[in-house]
């Protein structure tokens, strides 16, 4: 059996730009539904999206609510890789993160990029 293709979605926008915070989740949940492997990375202001309760505050007109998309992603086993230095510079504490968020460093991101079919940055 052929190995599943992997897509990496890097999220650089947070609640300040609801559309660009939401689109990667639309793409990621669609890829998961298409039987692809998905990794989502959160850097810069995207790190804020990994905080508990943040998704409830983000809704882009014309898109499903971010909370709903994040729940679908998590239920499908999706992981959220959060940049540790980005988290630190934004004063985000580990206890504030959603359950499927994992704090990682640059080496993890580079490894994921190298093994992906494509990397998309939003």
Structure write-up:
Helices cover 34% and strands 20% of the residues. The chain is α/β, with parallel strands linked by helices and 122 residues long. It has one domain: Hypothetical Protein Ychn, Chain: A, CATH 3.40.1260.10. A five-stranded parallel sheet has the order 4-3-2-1-5, sandwiched between helices. The longest helix has 16 residues, at 18-33. It is globular and about 45 Å long. The N and C termini lie far apart (32 Å).
* Alpha-beta content class: alpha/beta
**C-alpha geometry:** globular
Biggest sheet: strand arrangement: 4-3-2-1-5
CATH architecture: 3-Layer(aba) Sandwich
List the main descriptive attributes of the protein structure presented here:
4 helices; alpha/beta; Hypothetical Protein Ychn, Chain: A
Nutshell version of this structure?
With 122 residues, the chain is an alpha/beta fold. The chain has helices at 18-33, 66-75, 84-89, 106-114, and strands at 6-11, 37-42, 80-83, 101-104, 118-121.
Give me the secondary-structure topology.
Layout: E1 6-11, H1 18-33, E2 37-42, H2 66-75, E3 80-83, H3 84-89, E4 101-104, H4 106-114, E5 118-121
Parallel strand pairs: 1-2, 1-5, 2-3, 3-4
């Amino acid at each position: 059996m052929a190995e599943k293709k992997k897509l990496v979605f890097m999220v650089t926008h947070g609640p300040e730009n609801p559309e660009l915070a939401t689109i990667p989740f639309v793409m990621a949940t669609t890829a998961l539904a298409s039987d692809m492997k998905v990794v989502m990375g959160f850097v810069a202001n995207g790190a804020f999206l990994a905080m508990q309760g943040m998704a409830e505050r983000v809704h882009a007109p014309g898109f499903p609510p971010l909370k709903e998309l994040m729940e679908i992603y998590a239920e499908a086993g999706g992981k959220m890789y959060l940049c540790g230095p980005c988290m630190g510079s934004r004063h985000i504490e580990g206890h504030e993160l959603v359950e499927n968020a994992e704090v990682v460093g640059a080496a993890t991101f580079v490894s994921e990029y190298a093994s992906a079919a494509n990397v998309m940055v939003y």
